[in-house]
Specification:
- It is a single chain.
- With 302 residues, the chain is α/β, with parallel strands linked by helices.
- It has one domain: 3-Layer(aba) Sandwich (Rossmann fold).
- The protein has 10 helices and 12 strands.
- Strands 1, 2, 3, 4, 5, 6, 7, 8, 9, 10, 11 and 12 form a 12-stranded mixed β-sheet that branches.
- Helix 1 crosses helix 3.
- The longest helix has 17 residues.
- It is globular and about 55 Å long.
- The two termini are 26 Å apart.
Length: 302
């Protein structure tokens, strides 16, 4: 089944080229089916790229999904056109009366800042509180995962000695958890961040379960015991070349940055990297949509 997207969304043409099954809103309304309503709070600066990465994954399931995009009212991104935001995005004030089956809160390149110093932190807290009653399940990514751990569970992030960038090996702690259906016991996933969260604090919190962890990258997938929140500290949604582009950007800025670990063949940035995490990315998103959204959400919200 398709994802339903706004007409003329730029990502739509690229998804069609990749043979991702999409359906525009006007056609979707003619079908007698209860689609899932998913809202994405996109905090990434290159919003169109993130849209494509996430829609590609949400369109790879048998479920019909209506997509909605949310941006902050207290901060307007400088890396996307105002026209794009006005046509495809809305703000919390316009959707706070609604209920959604699922929500994704993305990362943001602001991890060096204390949460309370982020311009839209108060707005984000309001959205996260609202999600507890108005959303069936929330998937938090990277900085979004750290923000959720801090706001909902009081687990703060801490600075790393240097940027964690690369593709790292992770181990499952419990292969029977629905989110990990089909996962290998050991699998690869990319990370790109300057901060981390304490494995010990997560393991000691009875409200949380650490599902996947890396010796090098730390806590990776964390679930709340009530299955309301899923926190993923890395970037499974990244394309094969995303880390390379970030590395080149950092080099051009003159930053002292290491070559992403376990990424380029022979650690040579001149060589084309390969995507070694794609299968687990699709498993994570399809398992989330199926087991934590579709099978848990009410057919009719009261």
């Amino acid at each position: 089944m398709p994802i339903n997207i706004p007409r003329h969304l730029p990502a739509g043409e690229l998804l069609k080229e990749e043979k991702i099954f999409i359906m525009e809103e006007d056609r979707a309304t003619t079908q007698d089916i209860r689609p899932l309503n998913i809202i994405i709070l996109n905090l990434m600066p290159e919003k169109e790229r993130t849209e494509l990465q996430l829609l590609r994954l949400l369109g790879n399931t048998p479920l019909q999904v209506n997509m909605n995009f949310l941006n902050t009212a207290t901060y307007e991104s400088k890396n996307v056109s105002k026209n794009h935001l006005e046509e495809f995005y809305t703000t919390f004030e316009h959707i706070k009366h609604r209920r959604f089956d699922g929500m994704i809160i993305t990362g943001a390149p602001i991890e060096h800042m204390p949460f309370e110093e982020v311009i839209y932190w108060e707005e984000l807290k309001q959205i996260m509180d609202w999600s507890k009653t108005n959303v069936t399940s929330v998937l938090h990514i990277c900085w979004g995962a750290q923000a959720a751990l801090y706001h909902h569970y009081g687990i703060d992030k801490y600075d790393l000695p240097k940027k964690l960038s690369g593709v790292y090996s992770h181990s499952l702690t419990d292969s029977t958890v629905k989110l990990a259906r089909g996962f290998n016991d050991v699998f690869a996933a990319p990370h790109s961040r300057y901060t981390s969260v304490s494995v010990e604090e997560i393991e000691q919190d009875p409200r949380l379960q650490l599902l996947a962890v890396s010796e090098d990258a730390g806590a990776f997938i964390v679930l709340s015991k009530d299955e309301k929140h899923i926190m993923v500290t890395g970037h499974l949604e990244y394309d094969a070349t995303t880390l390379a582009e970030e590395y080149e950007r950092d080099v051009q800025k003159g930053l002292e940055i290491d070559v992403p670990a376990n990424y380029f063949p022979n650690d040579d940035p001149a060589r084309q990297p390969m995507n070694t995490w794609r299968s687990h990315t699709h498993l994570l998103f399809s398992n989330w949509l199926n087991y934590y959204v579709y099978q848990e959400t009410p057919f009719v919200w009261e």
